[in-house]
């Protein structure tokens, strides 16, 4: 998304986010899903079973996604009011983001002088993030631009990201970036290496820096990110962040199912795409240019193979662009010894019957 400083764009995005969350709160079943919601079987070593897994990616955002958010603050002097607003809205924002699924969050910052610093890596305890934001202050700076690349790179490298998570680096600032320990190129590599979405919350209109070059907006878009303008009020900051995360789910290009290794060492899985909505199947993946304008359905042949004895319960995930949006539970038992004995006796009986008939 390209940056605009006009508030109508933010209002539209914020309204979309609030509307989406309202749908989720209403109890209507519009969440991304994987069906069947559970599967169980008894498999002997070497045996396999194949079932159809159906993934529905809905027009509304997911409610069972894995969401990791690193907030990255510019803590130079001009950001005082924005940081104060963020402190006020932090707890309520994290609670509302729970509507998307399981949320973990953390905090990093940058200043000048001073390199980017991770204050708290992602953690599912919201109070840890709130405390980290509360502990921030605004000071220093006095020149232009700021060490934003350092802050974003530090967050990417030290975020403590969970496997399979939808990863967001939320940069809150009012000034463009300059090279320090990190550069544009190295920051692009750091962000790309963890497949994170960069979202910029731009306070240039509050600090009078919108006309300075480089702008905060151009620095964020240079990293492939999206920018949302905000005032320093708590409600505006929360709306901008929510709008940014909601918008990141709007388009996607790949859908598949996988257990991410959870079934091993007892159960191995394999996936073959069999139906790809308007796109096409390529091995395990449904691929295409998709959006959330409508619900979209994808199907897969999903094969479980017993490779070692032992009961096993594990989760299979619906993955959109390799990130978890829904999950279901699979359960496997090893056939009881008595069952194997009965099967053996049955085979012996068949053999005896064949001898008598000869």
Automatic annotation (TrEMBL):
<keyword id="KW-0964">Secreted</keyword>
<feature type="domain" description="Ice-binding protein C-terminal">
    <location>
        <begin position="334"/>
        <end position="356"/>
    </location>
</feature>
<feature type="signal peptide">
    <location>
        <begin position="1"/>
        <end position="31"/>
    </location>
</feature>
<protein>
    <submittedName>
        <fullName>PEP-CTERM motif protein</fullName>
    </submittedName>
</protein>
<dbReference type="Pfam" id="PF07589">
    <property type="entry name" value="PEP-CTERM"/>
</dbReference>
<dbReference type="InterPro" id="IPR036465">
    <property type="entry name" value="vWFA_dom_sf"/>
</dbReference>
<keyword id="KW-0732">Signal</keyword>
<feature type="domain" description="Hemicentin-1-like von Willebrand factor A">
    <location>
        <begin position="69"/>
        <end position="156"/>
    </location>
</feature>
<dbReference type="InterPro" id="IPR056861">
    <property type="entry name" value="HMCN1-like_VWA"/>
</dbReference>
<dbReference type="Pfam" id="PF25106">
    <property type="entry name" value="VWA_4"/>
</dbReference>
<dbReference type="InterPro" id="IPR013424">
    <property type="entry name" value="Ice-binding_C"/>
</dbReference>
